User: What shape does this take?
Amino acid sequence: MSARLVQAGTPYPGKSDKTIRMGVVGGNFGATFHWHEHPNCKITGVTDLIPELRENLKKYYQCDQVYGSLEEMIQKSRDIDVVAVFSGGNRHAQHAKMCMENGWHVIVACPACFTLEEAALLKEVKERTGMKYIIGGRNPFLRGIYIEKAPLANWSIPNVNIIMILTGKV
Assistant: This one.
């Protein structure tokens, strides 16, 4: 298994003209990332159940598309490619499932799930929908992106790319 570290600020895999339209769920931890600073990323929807945290997301990402819940965002939004799921950890698996079933790729905060049943559900939904699923984490000592190639024979998914995004203050 080999790993590469891409320095912060360096887009991977390089230059692209494609704009990624992103939704963010969870206005506390969700408002600590810098997606909106990348030239090819536009935050096109934000949501939190708590009004103050919704407003926090709106201001932080300078996004006018604000939804009262993930369910409302799924129902009304037509311009999202990927969703960052940073709601409460006990809802990560369910929210990731809802997003993938809506045709959205997902990056989710740790923990991805709490039970083997939730892990199996996420695997099944990812395989059925074909959506990408990324688990992000925080590390206070390093800011960058690790990309691993790992054969996951037990999951019958050959050569899966596992991407862990590490953020934090250096």
